[in-house]
Amino acid sequence: MKDFDLSNRVAIITGGNGGIGLGMAAALARNGCGVSIWGRNTKKNDDALQKIGTGGGKVEARVCDVTDRAAIEDAFRGTLQTFGRVDGCFANAGIGGGGRRSFIDRTEEEWRQMMTTNLDGVYRVFQVAARHMVERAEKGDKFGRLVPTSSLASISGTARNEHYAITKAGLNALVRALGVELARYGITANAILPGWIKSEMTEGLFGNDKFVTNVMPRIPMRRFGEPEDFGGIAVYLMSGLSSYHTTDTFLIDGGYAVF
Ligand code: NDP
Fold first, then answer.
1. To test the ligand 1 pocket, which listed residue (92, 150, 228, 229) has its Cβ within 8 A of the most ligand atoms?
2. Where is the Ketoreductase domain (predicted)?
């Protein structure tokens, strides 16, 4: 078996019907992994399945809102019915905050919506997945991967989008806690921190000439990231080669953070 042959593995990707999630889903499927993409929008789910195509691992899509625990439990049962197991959980679904505004004006509703999607959503999905992985490990099958999509904002703090940054910083702490707690079950936890990536979430920004002129010179790679740039890390983390690599945060930003 080749190092990156994932044909005996199955991964869930929340928010897998577009952007970064789809980039990861496509790469996993190309390398033989069974993939269940979860999103709220049925049409986007169907389009994503088309984009991934056939020829790699089996791929399915499920409608699931990560703010709804019952929906998550339902989707998880469905994924188990399709594949019989879940080895990896990429908690990637997230919202961006819809434009920056002062903390002084931050409403309870905006704050709660951000928490329940970006932070509580990961808690719910990981808890359901981790219970399954631990149960399997107790029967001798010690393999699990918990991978939230955090953000460069978790380090920078991001003025006027502080509620978003806080959720992502929470995910960095979560992988450190889970990586330690679950290591004895062969379960690793690592967060992915994207920089400036082209997706539906950021299309407003990338259409803005002033933003592009300001930010581009600060990216050593001299380009914005693409969803496909996240395929490599997804495949590595799902493979057996990453078994000793846990509690880490992977910055994928073309060098922006340290430039
Ligand atoms: P997209 O808007 O393209 O993707 C967001 C995904 O999340 C969609 O698939 C959407 O699916 C899903 N989603 C949103 N809310 C929910 C919900 N309540 N339940 C289930 N699914 C949901 O943006 P990106 O690909 O850019 O974002 C992916 C992740 O990357 C996010 O967590 C984001 O915070 C993070 N990130 C992105 C950066 C960037 O520059 N693009 C930078 C740093 C981090 P649907 O519409 O069907 O619900």
1. 92
2. 9-196
Residue 139 has pLDDT above 80, yes or no: yes
Does residue 193 contact residue 249 with C-beta atoms inside 8 Å? yes
Average of pLDDT values for 202-216? Answer: 93
Whether 226 maps to a domain, the answer reads: yes
> Looking at ligand 1, which atom is closest to the CA of residue 194?
43
Residue 17 in any domain: the answer is yes
d(CA 175, CA 86): 18
Work out which ligand 1 atom sits closest to the CA atom of 45. Answer: 47
pTM: 0.98
Can 164 be counted among the known catalytic residues? yes
250 bridge partner residues:
192
Domain that holds residue 213: 10-252
Q: How many domains does the chain have?
A: 1
In a domain, 259, yes or no: no
- The CATH number linked to 244 is 3.40.50.720
Atom of ligand 1 at shortest distance to CA of 168? 34
Asked whether this complex has an ipTM greater than 0.90, the answer is yes
Q: Whose CA is nearest to atom 16 of ligand 1?
A: 93
Q: In what order do the strands lie in the sheet with 144-148?
A: 59-63, 34-39, 10-14, 88-91, 144-148, 187-189
